[in-house]
Amino acid sequence: MKNDIIIGWIGTGKMGSSMAGHFINSGYICNIYNRTYSKAKPLIDKGARWCNNPEEVALKSDIVFTMVGYPEDVEEVYFGESGILKALRPNHICVDMTTTKPSLAIKIYELVKSMSADFIDAPVSGGDIGARNATLSIMVGGEENIYNKILPLLELLGKNIVYQGKVGSGQHTKMCNQIVIASTMIGVCESLLYARNAGLDSETMLKSITKGAAGCWSLDNLAPRIINKNYEPGFYVEHFIKDLGIAIEESTRMGLKLPGLELAKSLYDKVKNMGYGKKGTQALMLALEEISLIKQ
Amino acid sequence: MKNDIIIGWIGTGKMGSSMAGHFINSGYICNIYNRTYSKAKPLIDKGARWCNNPEEVALKSDIVFTMVGYPEDVEEVYFGESGILKALRPNHICVDMTTTKPSLAIKIYELVKSMSADFIDAPVSGGDIGARNATLSIMVGGEENIYNKILPLLELLGKNIVYQGKVGSGQHTKMCNQIVIASTMIGVCESLLYARNAGLDSETMLKSITKGAAGCWSLDNLAPRIINKNYEPGFYVEHFIKDLGIAIEESTRMGLKLPGLELAKSLYDKVKNMGYGKKGTQALMLALEEISLIKQ
What we know:
Two copies of one chain form a homodimer.
Chain A: E1 2-10, H1 14-25, E2 28-33, H2 37-45, E3 49-50, H3 54-60, E4 63-66, H4 71-79, E5 93-96, H5 102-114, E6 118-121, E7 124-125, H6 127-133, E8 136-141, H7 144-154, E9 158-165, H8 169-197, H9 202-209, H10 217-221, H11 223-227, H12 237-253, H13 259-273, H14 284-291
Parallel strand pairs in A: 1-2, 1-4, 2-3, 4-5, 5-6, 8-9
Antiparallel strand pairs in A: 7-8
Helix pairs in contact in A: 1-2, 1-6, 8-12, 8-13, 8-14, 12-13, 13-14
């Protein structure tokens, strides 16, 4: 057991469980909390120590990671009645790996700093597979010396770890990532819809276009699922909608008008309204079919 | 000099010159025609034989390739007063490599077949670099036995050569390619605009996102040019507008509504109206800046 640093982990969903698991596997003492106890049970069986709330996690740990769902969840975990801030000590380090608002990262940072502790925003991309295989991309914002201090821990979770600048920069970078994916998904789905209606064989069509200027991750990884009408989630529609909402809020605040992002948000809202919030982002295809009045 | 087959080549622009050049370099007799003589001159200096019109090219050649600009140009070259059809003989093979309307490919095919000759549509992607290095993607439509006959010639021009099905399928596949690129470019430009306004370092941001789920050719190849405000053409805005117009026309005919494609077309029209028709597709950034009222 490593005793030099005690880790706290809040949020043991699909991503968080795998991530916290890497710390346990590496021999760290790991205090955990999750809203739903049952989801934390497998980690407890592996040696994690259960805490009754975020405050207790903070009390018993040197560094507290959070990986929860929505900005509201992050706020509850930090500012709630039994939140992290209640137990914060000088030199505590808090790392929020949830994808959330850059403005919230800044708000937490300021409060945490006022208590002589530190805060880092470090959202990830790479999905549940990346979490499981410790190949996540981690986008880090905050003070660089704190980043350097926690880098060995982040290296247990991901491969492509990049320091992006002051607090909030990690979240902003994640927004850039989601903005590219949003419009790319539209292009990929529209292309498959066109192919099918033009009488092409979609798989043969992909052989022509995946290696050239149209080539992209979504075409390689999600187009085959769409062809097979497999809409099971890699990444949930409703989580993507959360991210796109944050991106629109932030870009509007900056005075930007991003029509592709807005279009993607409206299409994904449609997917959710059709009842597919828990499907994968490739379910965008279903909204495009509906718009063209194509029966499923 | 290879004498088994005499090649005709119509259209010696940026792409066509490189492509015809590969045939000449391989020892084929090559009859060429181009609307502007001066652009054909370098090929003539390499041994190509000048013809005064498409009819003369067809008359003197066994197989005629066309690589011109717009559907109207293809029509002129085939149906014009001194067009290819005037000199068509049985067993002649015509190969249109221009990106044009699937419906036009079908029209030419039917006329050519009625004269006991053959027609193949074989648009390409890969740009001027692909043409120069003979690494083009070639998407082929038409009769499969004719495809097999000309495959050794296509292999002198490209690497990823895929038979897509009956006549028009090559053009349809190219449309799928352009539909993906259209929306992807919106995502890439919006992401860079967001990054700049969020105070991120755009190059550092790219380090986080290019290898993951946002990864795409445009991000790898065009984002760095956009960051450097380099809008010189790889692929012309006005040619892309032509392609998007065809894609909209065809998809509308199929009863499809593709909102991403429509958005891209309207944004690229804006780029052209701003005077950037001869810039590269990455100049989409300039229209997005204008929409957000950002000064160049």
